[in-house]
């Protein structure tokens, strides 16, 4: 029988907790979309999530529906579709930056069919090699003008911890080191309780407390890579990004 392993977590604010995670015991994930008390299967929305097709490399940040747009700012290189860092298929995405103030390297894809107040999942396979990068979902993003959005869901992966932000709550977890190998990171977002559940490689890591009941409508954007205001260099491989609702 497997023993529980402890994962420390802290809610940014006033609440601190210790969470026990078992290798065999997880948590029920969302299996459908809650709408007026009914449950329906989640529908895949992401296009070219495995980067098998070509992607655009352009300026920041025009609307990009149906495919990725890879951009960089302040002298960094945009993420590139390549065959070295890949989890599945022939290609993956490599996002890397030399570091420095206001340096960024990220790719994003927009979705017009996102429904506010409905369950959704966001997941990706990532190969963290150095530094800190992010998997995010923004609603009504300001296209980089001030780095703001009406709603923000983020998974920030650091060498010594991960942070989950959902419904205006941010929780820090201190799980095992994920660097130097491929791992599947998955967020299940429950619109009825306004909580996000993080699983890595299918194992429950933690869950945010109930957040603010705030579900704005607008253009949704899935985003991977390194944002601005990062001083340290970073290097991540990304593959098989999925967004379902």
Write the layout of secondary structure elements.
Blueprint: E1 5-11, E2 16-21, E3 33-35, E4 38-40, E5 56-57, E6 69-73, E7 80-82, E8 92-97, E9 103-111, E10 120-130, E11 133-139, E12 151-157, E13 162-166, E14 169-174, E15 183-190, E16 195-200, E17 203-207, E18 220-230, E19 234-244
Parallel strand pairs: 5-6
Antiparallel strand pairs: 1-2, 1-14, 3-4, 6-9, 7-8, 8-19, 9-18, 10-15, 10-19, 11-12, 11-18, 12-13, 13-14, 15-16, 16-17
What is this structure, in a nutshell?
With 245 residues, this protein is mainly β. It contains no helices and 19 strands. The N and C termini lie far apart (36 Å).
Report on the structure:
There is one protein chain. The chain has strands at 5-11, 16-21, 33-35, 38-40, 56-57, 69-73, 80-82, 92-97, 103-111, 120-130, 133-139, 151-157, 162-166, 169-174, 183-190, 195-200, 203-207, 220-230, 234-244. Helix content is 0%, strand content 49%. The chain has a single domain (42-244), classed as Jelly Rolls. It has 245 residues and is an all-beta fold. The strands form 3 sheets. A 10-stranded mixed sheet has the order 2-1-14-13-12-11-18-9-6-5, with no helix packed on it. A 7-stranded antiparallel sheet has the order 7-8-19-10-15-16-17, with no helix packed on it. Strands 3-4 form a two-stranded antiparallel ribbon. The chain contains no helices and 19 strands.
């Amino acid at each position: 029988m497997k023993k529980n392993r402890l994962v420390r977590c802290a809610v940014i604010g006033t609440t601190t907790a210790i969470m026990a995670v078992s290798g065999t015991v997880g948590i029920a994930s969302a299996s459908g979309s809650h709408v007026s008390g009914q449950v329906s299967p989640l529908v895949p929305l992401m296009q070219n999530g495995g980067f098998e097709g070509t992607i655009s490399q352009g300026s920041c940040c025009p609307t990009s529906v149906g495919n990725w747009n890879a951009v960089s700012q302040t002298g960094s290189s945009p993420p590139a579709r390549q065959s070295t860092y890949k989890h599945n298929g022939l290609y993956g995405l490599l996002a890397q930056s030399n570091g420095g103030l206001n340096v960024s390297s990220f790719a994003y894809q927009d979705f017009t069919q996102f429904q506010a107040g409905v369950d959704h999942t966001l997941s990706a396979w990532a190969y963290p090699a150095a530094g800190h990068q992010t998997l995010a979902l923004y609603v009504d993003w300001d296209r980089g003008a001030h780095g703001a959005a009406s709603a923000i869901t983020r998974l920030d992966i650091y060498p010594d911890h991960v942070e989950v932000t959902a419904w205006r709550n941010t929780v820090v977890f201190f799980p095992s080191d994920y660097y130097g190998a491929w791992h599947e990171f998955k967020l299940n977002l429950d619109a009825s309780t306004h909580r996000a559940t993080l699983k890595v490689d299918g194992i429950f890591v933690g869950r945010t407390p109930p957040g603010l009941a705030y579900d704005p409508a607008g253009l949704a954007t899935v985003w991977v890579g390194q944002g601005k205001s990062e001083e340290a260099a970073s290097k991540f491989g990304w593959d098989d990004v999925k967004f379902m609702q």
